[in-house]
Design brief:
Rossmann fold, 2 domains, six-stranded parallel beta sheet, Quinone Oxidoreductase, Chain A, domain 1, 18 strands, alpha/beta
Length: about 350
């Protein structure tokens, strides 16, 4: 089969590889659509970050090269022994977390905080940038007929955003600032509004992405034209209740802190290529709450239902659809150089 394989930074190759074999407790999925994630882009530009290259991953016992892609949907075409809840022909979406099930976090149900956490498409085992993928039955979710495969490919990033909002202390009537209008930032707008936010400010340089944010109900700020912190403080009489940092840029994290009111909260959703600098004294004197949010847990069924019912609208984020052969030039490189692009979907 054909697959996009990560070998090293700036080295992703589309090549023929052996089809994966279904084992006990697993299902084989014919991939319909797969999205390029921001973490995929980090691995392409600055990796390896989470992809194992020297020491095998503790759960998969494998290293790179690895078939990438962890935001994907498709149809089950094969099932292994002991599979009980899924069958051939089921339309599904993949929750790509690999967890040990044994550590303290896993035993508490916090499998996204697993001490040895892995991810399909990252941790040495194949993902969705391929014609077929084999996934554990426990991490595959059926989708209703009214939910298209294209929209189902956005369940994973939507789960990231909804989990981040659930991690926060956001309450009905609160004001919010979201820094960055990439896919996660844009999806977080909807999650915040669904949770009852009264006003959602979005800080973004790209005019095209600001337009999408406005369509989703946000008040946008262009940081190239105004002082971001001063503008938010002025419009909120002292700062927003909750800020979400979704850029991975050091100066932006400080802006998020400075734009949040006394005793407010900053939720860090982005992954970082290097450690940020921030004013610890500002955090102390403002008595702020800083929260990290990674992935998701026990949330996919809810996200599937909300998208299928139209209560979360994700179609506007899909800005381009390409074939697998074009994933590097028309996918990764386009996302790096064309900030009008939001979510690019791959059809294997």
């Amino acid at each position: 089969m054909k697959a996009a394989v990560w070998y090293a930074k700036k080295d992703i190759r589309v090549e023929d590889v052996a089809e994966p074999v279904v084992e006990s407790g697993e299902v084989k999925i014919k991939v319909a659509w797969a999205g390029i994630c921001g973490s995929d882009l980090h691995e392409y530009v600055a990796g390896p970050i989470t992809i194992p290259t020297k020491e095998p991953h503790p759960l998969t016992n494998k290293t790179a090269p690895v078939i990438m892609g962890h935001e994907f949907s498709g149809e089950i075409v094969g099932v292994g022994e002991k599979v009980q809840t899924l069958k051939v022909g089921d339309r599904v979406v993949v929750e790509p977390v690999i967890s040990c099930g044994e550590c303290h976090s896993c035993r508490r149900g916090f499998y996204n905080n697993c001490e040895r956490i892995g991810c399909y498409g990252m941790s040495g085992v194949g993902g969705g940038f391929s014609e077929y993928a084999v996934i554990s039955e426990t991490m595959v979710h059926k989708i209703p007929k009214k939910l298209s495969y294209e929209l189902a490919a956005l369940v994973e990033p939507m789960a990231v955003s909804l989990h981040a909002v659930r991690q926060s202390r956001l309450k009905a009537g609160d004001s919010v600032a979201i820094f960055g209008a990439g896919p996660i930032g844009l999806l977080t707008i909807q999650a915040c509004l669904l949770a009852g936010a009264e006003r959602v400010f979005v800080v973004e340089l790209s005019e095209e992405r600001r337009k999408v944010a406005e369509k989703l109900g946000a008040i946008t700020i262009n940081p190239a034209e105004v002082n971001t912190v001063a503008e938010i403080l002025n419009q909120t009489n002292g700062g927003v209740d909750v800020s979400f940092e979704a850029t991975g840029v050091s100066v932006v994290l400080q802006q998020a802190i400075d734009s949040t009111k006394m005793a407010g909260e900053v939720v860090i959703v982005s992954l970082w290529e290097s450690n940020p600098e921030l004013s610890a004294n500002t955090v102390v004197f403002k008595e702020m709450n800083i929260v990290g949010s990674i992935g998701y847990r026990n949330i996919f069924p809810t996200v599937i239902q909300l998208i299928a019912e139209g209560r979360l609208k994700v179609a506007d984020l899909i800005t381009k659809k390409i074939d697998l052969d074009d994933i590097v030039g028309e996918g990764f490189e386009t996302l790096l150089n064309d900030k009008s692009q939001v979510k690019i979907l791959i059809k294997p």
